[in-house]
From TrEMBL:
<dbReference type="InterPro" id="IPR001753">
    <property type="entry name" value="Enoyl-CoA_hydra/iso"/>
</dbReference>
<dbReference type="InterPro" id="IPR029045">
    <property type="entry name" value="ClpP/crotonase-like_dom_sf"/>
</dbReference>
<dbReference type="Pfam" id="PF02911">
    <property type="entry name" value="Formyl_trans_C"/>
</dbReference>
<dbReference type="Pfam" id="PF00551">
    <property type="entry name" value="Formyl_trans_N"/>
</dbReference>
<dbReference type="InterPro" id="IPR047180">
    <property type="entry name" value="HoxX-like"/>
</dbReference>
<dbReference type="InterPro" id="IPR002376">
    <property type="entry name" value="Formyl_transf_N"/>
</dbReference>
<feature type="domain" description="Formyl transferase N-terminal">
    <location>
        <begin position="34"/>
        <end position="142"/>
    </location>
</feature>
<dbReference type="InterPro" id="IPR036477">
    <property type="entry name" value="Formyl_transf_N_sf"/>
</dbReference>
<protein>
    <submittedName>
        <fullName>Hydrogenase maturation protein</fullName>
    </submittedName>
</protein>
<dbReference type="InterPro" id="IPR009188">
    <property type="entry name" value="NiFe-hyd_mat_HypX/HoxX"/>
</dbReference>
<dbReference type="InterPro" id="IPR005793">
    <property type="entry name" value="Formyl_trans_C"/>
</dbReference>
<feature type="domain" description="Formyl transferase C-terminal">
    <location>
        <begin position="178"/>
        <end position="256"/>
    </location>
</feature>
<dbReference type="Pfam" id="PF00378">
    <property type="entry name" value="ECH_1"/>
</dbReference>
<dbReference type="InterPro" id="IPR011034">
    <property type="entry name" value="Formyl_transferase-like_C_sf"/>
</dbReference>
Length: 581
């Protein structure tokens, strides 16, 4: 069929639905909803057989839903209604929730049900849950609803006929008054639940060091304690703050918006508090392990400890696992340099296989646009950041004494997708979405993509992927050659599945011969065209862009970090079709 996706933004869920429907041969247009009249115009031009709204914050006008079948994806079980479904569910501590695909009518979230799929609710942040368990359930529900619609014989059921004890009926937007942390009496678990329910939007409003901030993200700390509300330490850009019975790490802050000011954006907490933060100890995870160069090297006995770090290392037999998790998947200059230090240290260990990533949620989205935009000289910081990314990728590409695997439990885009391709193998959870392109940010791209992408998919496909700039499902990535192994599992099981597969691989026969062949291939490629030439060519284009204040990149970056929606739907999303299948 030809389907129109109507969305408030081309976010992760809209991209997942887009990619899954393309995989099944449907042709697609996307309309970013800005006004009712613009939607009517889009429908007249596109002439869709079906309208699907994966993420829509405004009501579809009556004349539209009466003329077209419009399916709304609601992140709640049958009978749940309102704009803050996940916020309420996480705050209530539910173990299971659901996604419902319902037909638009005159009342928000009240239409007849085409499909509903349940999912478990692990103790993770709302945005992580949304990109993973919610995305899996929504994808399954949308595909089921589309098949039922295409059959021409299915009749959707009124919600009143589908009882669901989990649903609580219509609830309003979750207010900041209920999110507010009461540091003097709230336990660590209570604070974490409030932070998780507000991640990544809207954050928890709080007062700190004479300012008002939205707190974003939260991780437990089981060793540090202090007076409730007191700042105790810093680590990797995050701040540690005491609760009534322990402490939490808060990675990011966003200042409260003042009337007439531009929309503020999230930054690492230490950077956001620059000039206000008192002298605090900067703590590593395990200082006694600093002889291995990074605080990320955690022995097996300490793996389940609750102290937090954004980079960790562990070993299972002959396999090293270097995991990292940065907010939003963005990697600043500091992130890249610390990860490179950890990578070099990991390569000093006597392993035959090294796994990068392997956790749930984002793998990487490339350079940190928020940190760049906040810099005194965004062009100079862009240049420093892209070079730090290139240094990391180069280290992976030139590792010839072991097999390196990129394990993607979550999405990857731009330089983050190319970071994954630097490894010998790319393993993806089946629900992952890849965006292997840079064009939408006005960049030529770097991270040695002109070497790694064509060698995997061929020059023609590489050109198409980078120019179309459309999301690619993990399954489509596997067919194209971007992905070597699909891991069919739920998000919570990904780490375990990767561990078992990597250990089996390390024990397999012929491993040393494979490593030797890898070394020979790298030497052969280097003799044909050195990696330095790829880097020089890519970075020369990037430097021109970064150095030109009038380059589109700077305006696009500012719009991205401030979440400014485009005035109209970008042309690459209109009549995208089923290419690249």
């Amino acid at each position: 069929m030809h389907i129109l996706l109507v969305a408030s933004a081309f976010n992760s869920l809209t991209q997942r639905v887009h990619a899954e429907l393309r995989d099944r041969g449907h042709t697609l247009d996307v309309h970013l909803a800005s006004s009712d009249d613009a939607l009517r115009d889009a429908l007249d031009v596109c002439g869709p057989e079906l309208v699907i709204a994966p993420m829509l914050k405004r009501a579809i006008p009556e004349d539209v839903w009466r003329k077209h079948t419009c399916l709304i994806v609601h992140p709640g079980p049958v009978g749940d209604r309102g704009p803050s479904s996940l916020d309420w569910a996480i705050n209530a501590g539910v173990d299971r929730w659901g996604v419902t695909v319902l037909q638009a009518n005159g009342e928000m979230d009240a239409g007849d049900v085409w499909a509903s799929v349940g999912f478990p609710v692990p103790r993770v942040g709302k945005s992580d849950l949304y990109r993973n368990e919610v995305s899996d359930a929504a994808s399954a529900a949308v595909l089921l609803a589309v098949d039922r619609f295409a059959s021409g014989v299915h009749t959707p059921q009124p919600q009143a006929q589908l009882r669901n004890r989990a649903a609580a009926g219509t609830r309003p937007a979750y207010p900041q008054s209920l999110r507010r942390i009461r540091w003097q009496r709230d336990s660590t678990e209570t604070v974490l639940r409030k932070l998780r329910a507000a991640d990544s939007s809207p954050g928890v409003m709080d007062e700190l060091l004479g300012g008002e901030w939205h707190l974003h993200g939260g991780h437990p700390e089981d060793e540090l304690k202090g007076r409730p509300g007191e700042l105790l330490a810093t680590r990797a850009g995050a701040i540690c703050r005491a609760t009534a019975d322990g402490a939490v790490w808060i990675p990011e802050l966003r200042p409260r918006r003042r009337p007439g000011e531009p929309r503020p954006f999230k930054l690492p907490a230490v950077q956001a508090l620059a000039g206000r933060l008192p002298a605090l100890p900067e703590l590593s995870v395990r200082p006694e392990l600093s002889g291995l160069s990074e605080s990320t090297f955690v022995p097996a006995a300490d793996r389940d400890r609750r102290t937090w770090s954004d980079i960790r290392y562990r070993e299972e037999g002959e396999v090293g696992f270097l995991s990292f998790s940065f907010p939003g998947g963005a990697m600043s200059t500091s992130h890249c340099r610390r990860l490179l230090d950890a990578y070099v240290a990991a390569c000093s260990r006597p392993t035959t296989v090294l796994v990068l990533g392997g956790t749930r949620d984002f793998f990487s989205n490339g350079i940190h646009l928020n940190v760049i935009d906040a810099a005194d000289d965004p062009g100079a910081e862009s240049w420093a950041n892209i070079n730090a990314m290139n240094d990391l990728v180069e280290a992976i590409l030139t590792t010839t004494d072991r097999l390196v695997i990129s394990a993607l439990g979550g999405n990857a885009a731009a330089g983050g997708a190319m970071l994954a391709l630097a490894a010998d193998e790319v393993w993806c959870r089946a629900g992952v979405v890849l965006n292997p392109h840079y064009r939408l940010m006005g960049l030529y791209g770097s991270e040695y993509w002109t070497y790694t992408l064509p060698r995997r998919v061929g020059a023609e496909a590489a050109d198409r992927l980078t120019q179309e700039a459309l999301p690619v499902s993990a399954s489509a990535g596997w067919r194209l050659g971007l992905v070597d192994r699909l891991v069919e599992c739920c998000p919570q099981d990904f780490s375990g599945e990767v561990t078992r597969s990597a250990v089996r691989l390390a024990k397999s026969s012929g491993m040393q011969e494979r490593i030797a062949a890898k070394k020979q291939a790298r030497e052969r490629d280097e003799s044909v065209r050195p990696l330095s030439l790829y880097r020089e060519a890519e970075l020369s284009s990037m430097l021109r862009t970064f150095s030109d204040p009038g380059a589109p990149y700077h305006a696009l970056r500012r719009a991205f970090v401030r979440k400014q929606l485009p005035a109209e739907t970008p042309s690459h999303l209109i009549r995208a079709g089923a290419t690249g299948r």
